[in-house]
Amino acid sequence: MQHRHLSPITPAADHPAAMPWTTVRLDAGTGVCGVLGQGSPLVFVPGGGSTPLTYRHALERLARRFRVYAPLIPGFAGVAGRPLDRRTLRDCSAWLGRFLGAADLGPVTLVGHSFGGAIAIQTADADPDRVARLVLVNSVGGGPWPEIRSAGSQVGDRKSLPLRMRATTVLPRHTATICNSVRDPRPIRPSAPLTSGGYLVPELNRIAARPLPVSLVWSRGDRLITRARLEALRDSLGRPPVFTVAGGHDWPITAPDYFGNAMRTVLDWLPPRGEQ
Fold first, then answer.
1. Which residues does residue 42 pair with via DSSP β-bridges, in sequence order?
2. How confident is the model at residue 184 (pLDDT cuts 50, 70, 90)?
């Protein structure tokens, strides 16, 4: 498969050196994206309340084999007073679809973790021609949104919770604010609680009816996405394969080497659409 030169994407200035950043013209403004590695394109969607910088070590492992794109999705890193509900995630997935078009990306391997999985599901449903395969890692979508505040004390990866699970980092209305939120992703003020009613069954059923390769990855120690939620997600997708790993909900962040090895196994097993 050949991959086109992405001329719409240009290097970004004044961003933290921990990760290379690029920009793309989007929605009469500028979209910001972390970009690492060389190879076929892989788009990574982080969990809610986080930025790609939170996952930089995990993304570095993916970048050993792929050209990894990790866009900063406005409104997804925790906007105070706005619940992380179905409407918010629909807006975020619509933005991601526009980003893929503006960056001339696709078809891509689309990977989503946690609430990022919900965005990946909606994007794969709405823009099927831009997605070659879909990998959902400890993903929501098969049932109501988990109650983050009640589950937080049970999640083993406690150190990452202030960045990832509490959805407190304010994301940006313009590029300058994006730069600041990436450079200093500390909590600013609590966001609204997550709402229930997060079933994505219609989207999942439509994906299952298409020739799109899908795989699920789930960690046995996840108390946020329980096995029952995993099985509900799997049922709605037509029972795709599940790769089970050790660890808690945030294992891609806390165990990046393990994540890289696991993803290599998953992606070697799951050929992109058209190469099966």
1. 68, 109
2. very low
The answer, yes or no, to whether the previous bond of 107 is cis (omega within 30 of 0) is yes
Q: In whole angstroms, give the CA distance from residue 199 to residue 5.
A: 37
Instruction: Tell me, yes or no, whether 86 lies in a domain.
Output: yes
Number of neighbours of residue 226 by Cβ within 10 angstroms: 14
3-state secondary structure of 132: strand
The whole domain housing 227 covers 21-268
How far, in Å, CA of 205 to CA of 209, rounded? Answer: 6
Note whether 207 and 121 are within 8 A (CB): yes
Region 35-56: mean pLDDT is: 93
Give the integer Cα–Cα distance in Å for 187 and 17.
21
Specify the amino acid at residue 178. I
Number of compact structural domains in the chain: 1
DSSP code of 219? E
The two structure tokens encoding residue 23 = 């920009």
243 belongs to a structural domain = yes
Neighbouring C-beta atoms of residue 256, cutoff 10 Å: 18
DSSP 89: H
Total count of residues recorded for the chain: 276
User: Rounded to an integer, what distance in angstroms lies between the CA atom of residue 160 and that of residue 60?
Assistant: 18
Q: Is the pTM of this model over 0.85?
A: no
